[in-house]
Amino acid sequence: MPEKQHYLKTKPGWSLNQKDPRFIEFLMPLWEWLYRYYFRVQTSGWENIPAQDKVLLVSSHNGGLASPDMYMVMYDWFQRFGVQRPVYGLAHPYFWQVPLTAELAGRLGAIIAHPRMAIAALHSGASVLVYPGGAQDLFRPHEQRHQIHFAGNQGFIKLALREEVPIVPIISVGAHDTLFVLADLYKILQQLHESGMPWLFGLDPEVFPIYLGLPWGLAIGPLPNIPLPVTIHTRVCPQIVFERYGREAASDRSYVNACYELVQSQMQQELDDLVKSQ
Prior knowledge:
InterPro entries: P_lipid/glycerol_AcTrfase_prd (IPR016676), Plipid/glycerol_acylTrfase (IPR002123). Keywords: Acyltransferase, Transferase. Pfam families: Acyltransferase (PF01553). With 278 residues, this protein is of the alpha/beta class. It has ten helices and ten strands. The strands form two sheets. The protein has a seven-stranded mixed beta sheet with strand order 1-10-6-2-5-3-4. A three-stranded antiparallel beta sheet has the order 7-8-9, with no helix packed on it. β3, α4 and β4 (110-112) form a beta-alpha-beta unit. 36% of the residues are buried.
């Protein structure tokens, strides 16, 4: 194996072998308590995930860095399908900058959000969970809590087309009420950066929210949060299958745009319906 490839495979997030089923089983009782008593999760639609085939699970982030709905979906997956059914989640490269978060993420089945790793996971026979909206989605203002926000990121569409896998959307309501994002000051910071102000630790934060939540009360910046005990509703939606697949389809910009708009609009409709049903 070339030295560079070997180096990448040994870096956190760049290997499929860091997932630790025993560690996940160890956390299941804690997740169950949070699921049943803290967030009182109500869920539906799990029959839309095929028993055997791999899929691309596409969801919207909510609730700040705590992202409680993501962990509740993970609990549902492992409780229903077992910890051995292969699934990996794509995590932002920033997660791998801190050794502790890198280790925890890897043991839970997270891999770095890079096309190479997503393709490797699918080729291994695993399903892949992706949150295209990333940090902008996590900290979107509270008034936008019922909006699907992918921030224009279309990589998941190209991945589904190239690897010929169906998309299974997952939506949720409630998790974005576990904190209250008042505004995002990122554009102001971006202007200051362009005027010469360096980023803290040399990292572009991508968002710079002001939010109300625990433990800070009023927080400025993308600080970690303790989610409030709000009921979370999740729904696994019917599969989305496109008309054509393959490398040519994934390279067709207008077709990728159309597929992106289709997924976003269908997920928004499902989210609107879920909100109305509460």
